[in-house]
Amino acid sequence: QVQLVESGGGLAQPGGSLRLSCAASGFTFSSFAMSWTRQAPGKAVEWVSGIYSDGSDTRYEDSVKGRFTISRDNAKNTLYLEMNDLKPEDTAMYYCAKYSDTVVADEFYALSRLFMYDSWGQGTQVTVSS
């Protein structure tokens, strides 16, 4: 069965950095687009960033553009999120998610459609505070 295991969260100061990882198993990782999402206390799940199956293209939510970088290593079945210049508003539980189809709709923000994801990890907590 599909398994996604996030790691790398923790406490960071404003302006600091963290690198999240998501180890995937139980499916052909290299065939599926993946995304990072987050949920702050009392708020809805928010899409953060997505990457196509071969890593050729990426998408970002506006508030993280220029600060976060998504990447993947298909040989290691691992998804990453490099987070720099962290802000208190980045505080949330971060989840990786697997796209439900090997084919992504041909529209620029197709990866941001949360209903298109069928598997999620257990999450890793990121807290940004001085």
Describe this structure in words.
It is a single chain. With 130 residues, the chain is mainly β. The chain is built from no helices and 11 strands. A hairpin with a 6-residue loop joins strand 4 (34-39) and strand 5. The termini are far apart. The model has no long low-confidence stretch (mean pLDDT 96).
Q: How would you concisely characterize the structure shown here?
A:
The protein has strands at 3-7, 10-12, 18-25, 34-39, 46-51, 58-60, 68-73, 78-83, 92-99, 117-120, 124-128. By secondary structure, it is mainly β.
Topology at a glance:
Blueprint: E1 3-7, E2 10-12, E3 18-25, E4 34-39, E5 46-51, E6 58-60, E7 68-73, E8 78-83, E9 92-99, E10 117-120, E11 124-128
Parallel strand pairs: 2-11
Antiparallel strand pairs: 1-3, 3-8, 4-5, 4-9, 5-6, 7-8, 9-10, 9-11
Q: What would you report as the Rg, rounded to the nearest angstrom?
A: 14 Å
Coarse structural class: mainly beta
Shape, principal axes of CA atoms: globular
- SSE sequence, one letter per element: EEEEEEEEEEE
Which short descriptors sum up this protein?
130 residues, 7-stranded mixed beta sheet
